[in-house]
Design goal:
Layout: E1 2-7, H1 14-28, E2 32-37, H2 42-50, E3 54-57, H3 66-79, E4 83-87, H4 89-92, E5 103-107, E6 121-124, H5 127-135, E7 143-145, E8 171-175, H6 184-192, E9 198-202, H7 208-217, E10 224-228, H8 233-239, E11 242-245, H9 254-261, E12 266-269, H10 272-277, E13 285-287, H11 292-304, H12 308-323, H13 326-344
Parallel strand pairs: 1-2, 1-4, 2-3, 4-5, 5-6, 6-7, 8-9, 8-11, 9-10, 11-12, 12-13
Length: 349
Amino acid sequence: MRVMHVMAGAKEGGAENIMLESVLALAEAGLEQHVVTRPDNAFRIKCFEDAGIQVTTTGFSNAWPFPTRTALNKAIEQFQPDVIEYWMGRAGQFAPAAHRARSIGWYGGYYKLERFKTCEWHVGLTIDLLRHIREQGVSDDRSAIIHTYADFEGAPPADRALLDTPADAPVALALARLHEKKGLDTLLDATVKTPGLYVWIAGDGPLEEELKAHCKRNGLNDRVRFLGWRNDRGALLAACDIVAFPSRYEPFGTVTVDAWAAKRPLIAADAAGPAAYVKNEVNGLLIPKNDVDALADAMSRVIEEDGLAARLVAGGTASYEAQFTKSAFQRDSQALYNKISAHAGPFKS
């Protein structure tokens, strides 16, 4: 099976992580792959190359699309893929119509079908994204759900001393872009109401200075650490006590799966994605969006209430093992690829 992946996303981000880890998992499963992506993330490109995956880099400029279309067509003709997967809407806009029968549009958000008009197949990351795809007119036999996965087995914990955090302090970790949608101001306000709690925020984005000023105004500089973008999620998860996920808007949110895979108690706001998978008091605590008091109370409960953290971890582990393991992802992806390859037939130049 020969699979090409086309990604024109940001330098860093959640969907970009999903794509990276998906391609590496499929390489482990024995698929021959080729990636076409932007040249601006050396870490991601090195991961592909270290796994023996061919990489073509190009700019994906909508203003001047011709170099990318040329590079993509050349890569397709040389690699002759059985399946081509276009990750997110920008990549989908470059999909050549000649290869429609073997092309997949991947939805990590509520994209318009128009972005994938030259893809015959459509994959949603969540139950609700699959609904969104089908409501735009895609038939059931040309659409599917492929859940993401996480695997942090054996990840050593980050050194708290290097993060200026006491060894015995409770720590809440937020893995999030510094954007208004992520609700990090709610987390900071809740931290004010949770004495002794330290917070690590791993991510970058446009609100960095505003959030740091918010910390200073509220006397949180001694308890909040802005870590920037990190490629060691497993280490941070292994070293924290709570995963805080206060997003106002979230089609899914891989943080949910990350917390379950790392066996850490999850507290999530009830945005559409988390609300579809998190069962309150079972595999996490589900709280209202924008509710500072509810988040502060939830974090205090996890820290102080006997048995609660262990119960949430047990429920999260069960949810993870049922749907979100690497083996489940590999199985479901290969089943879809086989179906598409059989439909499209042998590659023809």
